[in-house]
Specification:
Alpha-Beta Plaits; 2 domains; differentiation; four-stranded antiparallel β-sheet; 10 helices
Length: 212
């Protein structure tokens, strides 16, 4: 019986993480846990939001009983905003955070970040985007200069691999077989950096006469 193997895909997803004002002093410790959990920190900044900015960020919570306390809490001091990336980043980050109520998190998910760093339902230590679409909106809010390009998938991803990745990798592996270096991994890494097809190239070499 022929086995049907899934077609290769490119898995890249980003989510927004916030270290809230009352646990900013644990920034390095929390970042270490994030990195050891398989995330990349793509961007990071420390900022102090005004109550108006917090209201805009949590616009979907407007009108709820806790909204005034939420905006007061989030604007009470500096916070750390991070863009995290990995396969299924949104769901993995939510899983690492645990329940939004830190009291409940300590009962049901004692190893979660909110159980460790949160205090109660309001002051739960950290924030995470609820979905991919909300992550895009929140990243744009915290990082207005960020460029969020659509992630290639399906035929677009296969076309990209066939056009840009496979030819360069094949040439590198062929050169590796001919060279037979003592440290093949490092040699191949250096070769790929040197022969990166997207590497900027000068139109012409600047001669000594032109420099004078």
């Amino acid at each position: 019986m022929q086995m049907l193997m899934p077609e290769p895909q490119i898995f890249v997803e980003r989510t927004l993480a916030l270290i809230k004002p009352d646990v900013v002093d644990k920034e390095e410790e929390i970042e270490d846990l994030i990195l050891r959990s398989g995330f990349l920190i793509i961007q990071k900044r420390k900022l102090h939001l005004s109550p108006e900015q917090c209201s805009n960020f949590y616009a979907d919570q407007y009108g709820k009983v806790f909204f005034p306390n939420l905006t007061a809490y989030m604007s009470s001091g500096p916070l750390v905003a991070m863009v995290l990336a990995r396969h299924c980043a949104v769901s993995y980050w939510k899983e690492l955070l645990g329940p939004s109520n830190s009291i409940k998190a300590r009962r049901t998910h004692p190893n979660s970040l909110r159980a460790i760093y949160g205090t109660d339902d309001l002051r739960n230590g950290l924030h995470g985007s609820l979905s991919v679409s909300s992550a895009e909106r929140e990243i744009r809010f915290m990082f207005p200069e960020a460029i969020l390009e659509p992630i290639p998938a399906g035929q677009r991803a296969r076309d990209y691999l066939n056009l840009y990745v496979k030819p360069t990798l094949l040439a590198g592996l062929t050169a590796l077989c001919k060279e037979k270096p003592a440290d093949p991994m490092t040699w191949l890494a250096d070769w790929l950096i040197e022969h990166n097809p997207n590497k900027p190239r000068l139109q012409h070499q600047i001669t000594e006469e032109e420099q004078q």
